[in-house]
Task: inverse folding
């Protein structure tokens, strides 16, 4: 009943942030509840009532998922800077259900109607998903970050520099792909950021620490592996 009333409110006041916010939230909570019930199916002991509810929610979750996504998109586009809660909930649905075709279609629209400035507040959350295992989510995140970078390259350059230093190869590759796109319109900024990052790392390690580490590694190569060339290659950069 409340869902029908809120849906009617969005039709009667299509430019009302409160109407779209409430409509999106009620659908969001239905999806969250359905997901919680479905996850209970993995439990070895499930009450019969919960099993029946799980089957029911599995059949109906998609009917609330797309309205929640589209509702948040509308509320964010209307609410502007005051809609951070809606943006975070939209990301929650995107990252979890991004492979859903209706969700993917709605998000393509979101990239066009939501101002790029809004996404600046959730750059860390987006950067954290640049190597998402779900291809649809990964592609969408890359597309959105590329659009943000065209308008606000300074907001992305240093988070991407950090991602390029990650121990995860997939994360490094993803960050380098985004840098490649940024170089097309902000090449000088990218090169300067990489240079500053490299210099900060260089000066963070004292000269005697570098020598101590290099001598330790060189001794292992010489005495352990009998690798003279490797020893020279390890020490030579410190003489420059």
Result:
């Amino acid at each position: 009943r409340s869902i029908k009333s809120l849906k009617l409110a969005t039709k009667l006041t299509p430019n009302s942030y409160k109407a779209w916010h409430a409509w999106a939230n009620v659908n969001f909570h239905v999806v969250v509840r359905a997901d919680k019930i479905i996850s209970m199916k993995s439990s070895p002991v499930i009450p019969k009532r919960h099993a029946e509810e799980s089957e029911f929610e599995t059949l109906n979750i998609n009917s609330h998922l797309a309205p929640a996504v589209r509702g948040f998109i509308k509320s964010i586009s209307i609410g502007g800077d005051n809609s951070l809660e809606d943006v975070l909930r939209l990301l929650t649905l995107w990252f979890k259900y991004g492979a859903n075709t209706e969700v993917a279609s709605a998000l393509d629209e979101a990239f066009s109607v939501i101002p790029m400035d809004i996404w600046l507040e959730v750059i860390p959350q987006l950067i954290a998903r640049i190597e998402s295992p779900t291809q649809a989510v990964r592609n969408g995140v890359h597309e959105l970050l590329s659009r943000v970078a065209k308008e606000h390259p300074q907001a992305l350059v240093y988070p991407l520099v950090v991602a390029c230093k990650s121990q995860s190869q997939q994360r490094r590759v993803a960050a380098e792909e985004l840098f490649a796109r940024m170089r097309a319109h902000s090449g000088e900024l990218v090169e300067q950021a990489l240079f500053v990052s490299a210099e900060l790392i260089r000066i963070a390690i004292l000269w005697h620490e570098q020598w101590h580490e290099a001598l330790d590694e060189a001794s292992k190569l010489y005495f352990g592996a009998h690798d003279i060339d490797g020893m020279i290659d390890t020490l030579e950069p410190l003489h420059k």
